[in-house]
């Protein structure tokens, strides 16, 4: 793991997972891969954070899980976004947008 | 539900988690291999990156709630096992807690209504009962003539109101007629009390005038029972005492009269101002008011002063000195004689709770000392402080919970017991139920006491020496435990002494002579309906006929009529100053106190077994209008005619406006103010065929040689044959007398119960502590025995240890009892609050109990086999 890379903001991981699952049902490994790819290797999420987060989101019924075969014919646990999860994602995305806009405003003005 | 399913299919969840993580790992390896790495190297790297499968699993588990639940369940299971393992300790602790919680909750539920709960009126703290008090009327009243002036400018009162005193009956004369309690109240009554009707409207001022339109307000119960809660009653009329009356409104369910008399119907008072002014002093009224915010009771009294002058203006000077102004809160008026008893019960039950809590505390402390080694081992094995504290908390909670549940059950039983043995006149007892607030409070108290003493050992860092079972802090703890035992002894002694006093007082009370022979005497209270017997002659005719029909009942020794009966309750009364003996100057000062009187038929004295000391009883012809005989009680005779034979003397009754009367006899004194209060002197007038006073409520007394319950049935039948609508209340005289001791009996029984609880708890406490002491000193005792101590010596040593603390506790208890019993003084009857004999008896009881409780474990110590004891760790 690269030490220089910033820690994910608290709670951001949940939002990112929801966003990725929203693109289509996927299993834990795929989610980790996609996070890395989409962020252009910026985020590497550790299994010790990923799986607790996945189970937490499942507990809150934002994700739904089922066992399915992958393309390679292996059985894996696939997560899908629920209706509740979609709503949560929308709310978090909005909040994030406002937060980043506000942060950007402050950073720019100080400069 | 996913989460519930997971709780029950834990192994499946575990294997799925395993499968999911392994899949991830394999994908990672596959990816590395695909990137060209060697399989072995790829696996090694992936595993390093993954950082331990088990750790990830643990982290995942931590996010799931059922893990916390599991831990809690495990803690509870462990705690439960611990409690089961130490069965004697657990049972005793739970029993002690349950007794404390149960008794406190039950008593609090009862006295809460008396002492703390608000009255069912808006801003009840400003409501007062005000007016005059006199020797013969201890509750406030005002006379009509001054009240009609006062209410025009009530000064510091926001609003005042009045009602006619007493519990008057009226009859609902429709099909299936019933006798109801009707109260006549002023139009301002409901607004002063701040009562909102649930239906309809208050009386209008027009309706409260003499001969105004007839209207009535129904009680909630009457409306529900008789009119099925139908809102359309407002358009209906009812026939009340034969008169058509319109229903104006319905009272709320929680309404009660400020005098606490039961009421079914409110009627307008219809006070006639003109009549009241003319006929100074006017009618007697019960007066209530709402003080202005901030106004005090003493200011209220000052404001009433002019009206006192006015009321006493025409009165003989004798009256003036003994009439006072009084303003007191409505609550005081309602519960004044239950307050002291309530506080005493509450105090004693708190004492029981205190003993119970100390008991549990000392048990917990004893156990904690025994478990120091276990704690030390667990700490050494890596249990964190938080974990130990949580464990201790869970154990305390479990203990508190079990004690609490058992306590609620005990409270429920006790409350039922209280209600069934409670005397009449404890306000609102019937409504007492287990109150959630009270249960929460006592449970909380129990939890706190259990938690404090349960947590103490977990909070201190276990010392390494404790791993080998050496107790390093035993001395301080021992001191604390023994102080707790001493406190239990002290509190129990106070409780025992108080209970002893009340029991002794009850014993005196029940043996106090009433002046009557009450065995085989039946009484029948008859109240004639005003609409059926409106005139006195009709009432007289009814009673004459009833007497004629009862006369031939078999076994009758004597049959008499009287308007009222001793030893308590209503009686006619006047003042001594109103009785003028011929040849003596009138009493110079004061009223001379109250004098009771009754109208009785000739056989009254033989029926009640009251001896005629001089002269004769009344004769048949005394009932005629031309005769004016009088019989005096012994006390009254000696007051009126000191050192003289009163028979044949003449006297005149001022207030009765009657001619000179001749004293024909002197009867022995009879208790007439209940069993405790001092009796009033009394005189008897013959039951006349043309009385001045109404006789609508009168009593029949019958002395029989037959079985009283059979005779009671005959009496009932005879009354019903004459008029089936009359509710006849038939009681044995002995029951009537017995009822008077009900309240002292209630107090005595409860306090004895609590004292017994206190003693039992103290005994358990001593037993537990001594038992533990012995167990802890096993090794030391072994050494002593090995060095030649006899078992007698060991016994003495252990007992002496207990005796020291018991004596210290007893000394504190004697001091406490000395103060506490003084509070009881007004509840006592012919026994001194500081009766040394009773104190000694209580002390002896407690010492014997303490000795026995200590003896059992001490004997066990004395029988130790030194070899076994020495090896004991």
What can you see in these coordinates?
The complex is a heterodimer of chains A (111) and B (873). With 111 residues, chain A is an alpha+beta fold. Chain A has 4 helices and 3 strands; from the N terminus they run αβααββα. Chain A has a 3-stranded antiparallel sheet with strand order 1-3-2. The radius of gyration of chain A is 16 Å and the shape is globular. The relative contact order of chain A is 0.16. Chain B is built from 27 helices and 24 strands. The mean pLDDT of chain B is 81. At the A-B interface, helix 2, helix 3 and strand 3 of A face helix 2 and helix 4 of B.
Q: Main sheet of chain A, how many strands, which sense, barrel?
A: 3 strands, antiparallel
Most extensive interface between two protein chains, with residue counts = A-B, 21 and 23 residues
Query: How far apart, in Å, are the first and last alpha carbons of chain A?
Result: 32 Å
Strand order, largest beta sheet of chain A: 1-3-2
For the largest beta-sheet of chain B, the strand count, sense and barrel status come to:
8 strands, mixed
């Amino acid at each position: 793991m690269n030490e220089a890379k910033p820690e994910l903001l608290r709670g951001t991981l949940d939002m990112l997972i929801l966003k990725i699952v929203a693109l289509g049902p996927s299993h834990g490994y795929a989610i980790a891969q996609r996070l890395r790819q989409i962020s252009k290797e910026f985020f590497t999420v550790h299994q010790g954070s990923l799986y607790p987060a996945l189970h937490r989101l499942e507990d809150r019924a934002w994700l739904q899980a089922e066992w399915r075969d992958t393309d390679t014919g292996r059985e894996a646990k696939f997560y899908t976004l629920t209706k509740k999860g979609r709503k949560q994602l929308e709310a978090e995305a909005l909040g994030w947008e406002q937060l980043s806009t506000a942060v950007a405003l402050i950073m720019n003005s100080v400069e | 539900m996913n989460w519930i399913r997971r709780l029950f299919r834990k192994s499946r969840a575990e294997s799925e988690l395993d499968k999911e993580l392994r899949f991830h790992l394999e994908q990672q390896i596959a990816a590395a291999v695909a990137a060209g790495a060697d399989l072995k190297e790829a696996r090694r790297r992936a595993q390093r990156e993954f950082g331990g499968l088990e750790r990830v699993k643990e982290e995942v588990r931590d996010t799931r709630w059922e893990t916390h639940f599991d831990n809690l369940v495990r803690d509870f299971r462990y705690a439960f096992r611990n409690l089961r393992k130490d069965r004697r300790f657990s049972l005793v602790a739970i029993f002690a807690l349950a007794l404390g919680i149960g008794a406190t909750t039950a008593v609090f539920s009862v006295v809460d209504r008396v002492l703390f709960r608000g009255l069912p009126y808006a801003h009840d703290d400003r409501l007062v009962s005000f007016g005059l008090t006199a020797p013969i009327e201890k509750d406030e009243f005002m006379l009509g003539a001054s009240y009609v002036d006062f209410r025009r400018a009530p000064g510091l009162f926001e609003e005042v109101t009045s009602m006619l005193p007493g519990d008057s009956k009226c009859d609902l004369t429709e099909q299936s007629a019933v006798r109801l309690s009707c109260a006549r109240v002023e139009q301002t009554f409901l607004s002063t009390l701040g009562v909102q009707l649930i239906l309809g409207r208050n009386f209008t001022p027009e309706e409260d005038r003499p001969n105004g339109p007839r209207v009535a307000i129904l009680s909630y119960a009457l409306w529900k029972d008789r009119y099925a809660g139908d809102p359309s009653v407002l358009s209906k009329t009812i026939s009340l005492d034969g008169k058509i009356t319109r229903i104006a409104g319905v009272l709320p369910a929680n309404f009660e009269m400020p005098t606490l008399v039961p009421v079914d119907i409110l009627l307008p008072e219809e006070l006639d101002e003109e009549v009241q002014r003319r006929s100074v002093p006017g009618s007697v009224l019960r007066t209530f008011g709402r003080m202005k915010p901030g106004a005090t009771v003493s200011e209220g009294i000052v404001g009433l002063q002019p009206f006192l002058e006015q009321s006493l203006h025409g009165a003989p000077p004798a009256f003036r000195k003994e009439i006072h102004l009084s303003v007191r809160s409505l609550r005081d008026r309602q519960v004044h004689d239950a307050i002291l008893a309530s506080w005493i019960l509450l105090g004693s039950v708190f004492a029981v709770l205190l003993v119970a809590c100390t008991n549990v505390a000392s048990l917990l402390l004893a156990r904690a000392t025994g478990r120091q080694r276990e704690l030390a081992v667990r700490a050494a094995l890596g249990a964190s402080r938080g974990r130990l504290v949580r464990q201790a908390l869970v154990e305390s909670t479990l203990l508190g919970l079990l004690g609490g549940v058992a306590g609620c059950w005990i409270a429920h039983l006790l409350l039922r017991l209280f209600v069934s043995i409670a005397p009449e006149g404890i306000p609102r007892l019937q409504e007492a139920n287990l109150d959630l607030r009270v249960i929460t409070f006592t449970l909380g108290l129990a939890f706190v006491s259990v938690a404090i003493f349960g947590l103490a050992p977990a909070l201190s860092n276990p010392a390494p020496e404790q791993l080998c079972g050496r107790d390093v802090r035993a001395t301080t703890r021992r001191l604390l435990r023994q102080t707790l035992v001493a406190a239990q002894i002290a509190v129990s002694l106070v409780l025992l002494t108080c209970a002893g006093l009340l029991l002794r007082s009850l014993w005196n009370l029940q043996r106090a002579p009433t002046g009557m022979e009450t065995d085989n005497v039946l009484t029948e209270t008859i109240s004639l309906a005003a609409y059926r017997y409106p005139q006195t002659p009709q009432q007289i005719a009814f009673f004459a006929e009833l007497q004629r029909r009862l006369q031939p009942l078999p076994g009758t020794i004597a049959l008499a009529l009287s308007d009222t009966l001793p030893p308590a309750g209503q009686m006619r009364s006047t003042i001594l100053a109103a009785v003028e003996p011929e040849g003596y100057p009138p009493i110079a000062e004061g009223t001379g106190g109250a004098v009771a009187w009754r109208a009785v038929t000739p056989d009254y004295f033989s029926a009640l077994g009251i001896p005629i000391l001089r002269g004769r009883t009344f004769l048949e012809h005394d009932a005629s209008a031309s005769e004016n005989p009088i019989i005096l009680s012994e006390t009254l005779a000696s007051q009126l005619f000191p050192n003289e034979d009163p028979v044949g003397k003449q006297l005149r009754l001022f207030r009765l406006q009657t001619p000179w009367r001749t004293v024909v006899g002197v009867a022995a004194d009879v208790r007439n103010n209940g069993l405790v209060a001092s009796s009033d002197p009394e005189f008897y007038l013959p039951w006349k065929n043309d009385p001045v006073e109404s006789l609508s409520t009168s009593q029949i007394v019958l002395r029989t040689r037959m079985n009283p319950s059979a005779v009671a049935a005959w009496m009932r039948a005879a009354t019903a044959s004459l008029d089936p609508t009359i509710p006849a209340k038939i009681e044995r005289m002995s029951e009537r007398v017995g009822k008077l001791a009900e309240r002292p009996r209630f107090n005595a029984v409860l306090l004895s119960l609590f004292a017994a609880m206190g003693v039992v708890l103290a005994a358990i406490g001593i037993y537990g502590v001594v038992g533990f002491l012995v167990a802890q000193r096993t090794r030391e005792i072994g050494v002593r025995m090995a060095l030649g101590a006899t078992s007698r010596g060991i016994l003495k040593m252990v007992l002496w240890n207990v005796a020291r603390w018991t004596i210290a506790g007893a000394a504190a208890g004697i001091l406490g009892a000395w103060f506490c019993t003084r509070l009881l003084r007004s509840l006592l009857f012919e026994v001194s609050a500081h009766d040394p004999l009773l104190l000694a008896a209580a002390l002896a009881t407690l010492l014997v109990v303490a000795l026995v409780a200590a003896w059992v474990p001490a004997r066990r110590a004395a029988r130790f086999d030194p070899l076994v004891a020495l090896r004991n760790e």
